[in-house]
From TrEMBL:
Organism: Coniosporium apollinis
Oligomeric form and interacting partners: Component of the NDC80 complex.
Protein's UniProt name: Kinetochore protein Spc24
Major subcellular location class: cytoplasm
Localization (cell): Cytoplasm, Cytoskeleton, Microtubule organizing center; Nucleus; Chromosome, Centromere, Kinetochore
Keyword match Coiled coil: yes
InterPro entries in the cross-refs: Ndc80_Spc24 (IPR013252), Spc24_Fungi_globular_sf (IPR038066)
Gene that specifies this protein: spc24
Superkingdom of origin: Eukaryota
Function: Acts as a component of the essential kinetochore-associated NDC80 complex, which is required for chromosome segregation and spindle checkpoint activity.
Keywords, ordered alphabetically: Cell cycle, Cell division, Centromere, Chromosome, Coiled coil, Kinetochore, Mitosis, Nucleus
Recorded coiled-coil stretches: 89-123
Amino acid sequence: MLLDEDPAALIASCAANFNIAPDRASLTRISSSLSSLQQFRQHNLSQLSSTLAQFSRQLSNLQSQHSLIVSSHNAADHASEILRLDTEKFRIAKQASEAEIEVERLEAELDGLRGQLGDMEAQGVENAAEAQRSAGLAEDEVLLKLKVYRSLGIDVEQDQGTGRYSKAVIRNTQKGDVHVVNIDPKFSQFFYASWFWQTM
């Protein structure tokens, strides 16, 4: 009878008939794969956590810097500075334009003086003087003085009301300076002549 058999022998015989060795090997492989997958997942989580902590610190620093910049920014001062810079830009542009016009005027005047000098050198001083005398083109003393002043870089302006010369503009091309001198009759001509030479 079966019941007379040893239970252990019966179980062993039954287990041998089922052939569970391949299933056990599969379960072992599955368990090993699950363990490897768990380790890989844990490693990735650790790396991602470290990266997230680094980004969190960077975000905190950037937020602090942004808050500091926002708190220190004054919109009114910024607008005032922009307006000041715009005004300065237009002022400089105007000065540059005026300087360019003045340079063109002086170049034209210099060309004219060079032409006159060339004519005088070609004719000779005596021939030029004789031609002027014969043509009746004797120049006025004041006009000659003005030409001399202009050749030295001095422009004299006449007062429309009184008719006297009340202002002189002295240009120093070497230094790039321009000086405006108001001429007062109470000072002597020697005083202004010395001043002009020092300015030039």
